[in-house]
Amino acid sequence: MPQLTVEGVGQFEVPQGKRLVLALEQDAAIDQLHACGGQARCTTCRVEFLAGEPDRMTAAERDVLAARGLSGIRLSCQITCEHDMSVRATSRLEGSGRKDAGHPPAAEIQPPPQWIEK
Ligand code: FES
Predict the structure, then answer these.
(1) Bridge partners of 19?
(2) Cα–ligand 1 centroid distance for 102 (angstroms)
(3) Ligand 1 centroid vs 68 CA: distance in angstroms?
(4) What is the per-residue pLDDT across 60-108, written as a single tens digit (0 to 9) for each?
C-alpha cells in the first residue's frame, strides 16, 4: 500500500487508489478542507507536495488552478494514492472561519477524470 507522509503529522499506509483528500481526512485524521465536496471547484483541498507529486492531473484540476492563477499546489480531491507521497497540508478547518470542512467527497474522483500530463 502507498505510504502517505503528512508534514508534522505522521506517516500512514493508505489503500491503493484512494482519493488523497479522503486519505488526509480518514487515514491521517486531519481537518483538511474540501468545501465543494471534491468537485474541483473550490481549491480548499489544496496541498503542497514535498515528494512524490503525481505526473498526471485531471483536466478539471488544471482548469481550476489556471482560472485562479494558482501554482505550486495540487488539489487533493483530484489525486489518487498510487505511490508514496509526502505533502504539506496547509488548508485546514482550524483557523479558516468556516463552520465545517465541507460536503463529504465521494469515493471516486469527480467530475469523472480526464487524465492529462502535468
Ligand atoms: S476543489 Fe473543492 S474539494 Fe477539491
Answers:
(1) 80
(2) 9
(3) 13
(4) 999 999 999 999 999 999 999 999 999 999 999 999 999 999 999 999 9
Q: What is the pLDDT of residues 21-55, one digit of tens each?
A: 999 999 999 999 999 999 999 999 999 999 999 99
Q: Count CB neighbours of 85 within 10 A.
A: 24
DSSP per position, 17-51: T-BHHHIIIIIS---B--TTSSSSSS-TTEEEEEE
Residues within 6 Å of ligand 1 by CB: 34-36, 38-45, 75, 77
Q: Which atom of ligand 1 approaches the CA of 40 most closely?
A: 1
Reduce the DSSP state of residue 53 to 3 states and report it: coil
Instruction: Ligand 1, residue 46: give the atom nearest the CA.
Output: 4
CA of 2 to the centre of ligand 1 (A): 22
Beta bridge partners of 92: 32
Q: CB–CB of 27/88 below 8 Å?
A: no
Distance (Å, rounded) from C-alpha 110 to C-alpha 94?
Answer: 25
